[in-house]
Amino acid sequence: MKKLNIGIVGLGRLGKEYANNIQYKVPNANLIAACSLNKEEIEFAKNKLELEKTYSDFDQMLTNSKLEAIVIISSTNVHAEQIIKAINKGLHVFCEKPLGVDIKECMMVEKEAKKHSDLIIMIGFVRRYDPSYKHAKKTILENKIGRPFFVRSQTVDKDIWASFQLKFVKTGGGIFHDFNVHDVDLARWFIESEVERVWSQGGAYRFKEFGEVNDADNTFSFCEFKNGSMALIGASRTAPHGHDTFTEIIATEGKLTIGNPPSKNHVQISDKYGVRQECNETFFDRFKNAFLIQIQDFVDLVIRNEQPECNLSNATNATIITTAMTTSFQTKGIVKIKDVT
Ligand SMILES: NC(=O)c1ccc[n+]([C@@H]2O[C@H](COP(=O)([O-])OP(=O)(O)OC[C@H]3O[C@@H](n4cnc5c(N)ncnc54)[C@H](O)[C@@H]3O)[C@@H](O)[C@H]2O)c1
Prior knowledge:
Blueprint: E1 4-9, H1 15-24, E2 29-35, H2 39-47, E3 53-55, H3 58-61, E4 69-72, H4 79-88, E5 92-96, H5 103-114, E6 121-124, H6 131-141, E7 148-158, H7 162-172, H8 175-191, E8 195-203, H9 208-212, E9 218-225, E10 230-239, E11 246-251, E12 254-258, E13 269-271, E14 274-276, H10 283-304, H11 312-331, E15 335-336
The site of nicotinamide-adenine-dinucleotide has 25 residues, from loops.
């Protein structure tokens, strides 16, 4: 069996999960190198991933001539430059969302990628790989609910992650880029039209520290699409009950609801508190399976030499919209997409 030699950059909260998947669960992949700025993560790579080649410098890792592909799970602010460096070395690339938080950088990646059409470059929008979201898309394509005209989608994290996320704002671009890039991608995928205007509101209602860095802990954004459709997109860092991400698609002849309620499993508990279900704790608990399917798909696409359905232009478009949302939130006005590009 042909096995793809992969190097990973970023072994933080999510990078470790990717590295474990690639090393132990993707049969046609060989994880041969890892890079992180963090000493403990390098130890993790040596001890838990059993890697001989570890690096604290990304450029150094790229000199490893055995590499065929790079998986980028580093901080968002370095995604674009790392993608460009990897493709200029002739390596296939998988990079976690978002492509970037700066539209010019995203466009630069697209420009460089055009010079390397032989390479597979994929940006990870994991919800497209979740079996329930996939089924929803298939249901729409089979015309079972008519034409979608309204998407309500939210990304909601359990409150215990707020202090971690506060550090993340500097590199992750804030709540719209970090959380809502998923919902924006889904809304475009389901509605199949482009966003024309956005209006975002919100605030630091519980954790005032987010307000001090010009960000929020709860937001809502209203998006108008060129074909007249609408999306209402929410984000929250303050849910006491767990990771509560869901999407609802309203169409001319029906409606689809994905992930609501955000139950951990099918068990219902009846006790002195009432009748209830436990909630997923983290995004990874909810999308664990989808993360594995997604990285397996990347490896298979490279081996088959096929481009992904969700291309770089989708990723740039999502960043354009989350940039408009950020501007709208900060200026408290409606923002036209054409004014941020
Ligand atoms: N799809 C999802 O639902 C989802 C969820 C969480 C995170 N993410 C994305 O994954 C990425 C990583 O998130 P995380 O939570 O694991 O972050 P993290 O802060 O826990 O880890 C970041 C990692 O990047 C490495 N890094 C940063 N700059 C580097 C550089 N210049 N060179 C080499 N390594 C560098 C750090 O050493 C660390 O290993 C982010 O872009 C984030 O948006 C996606």
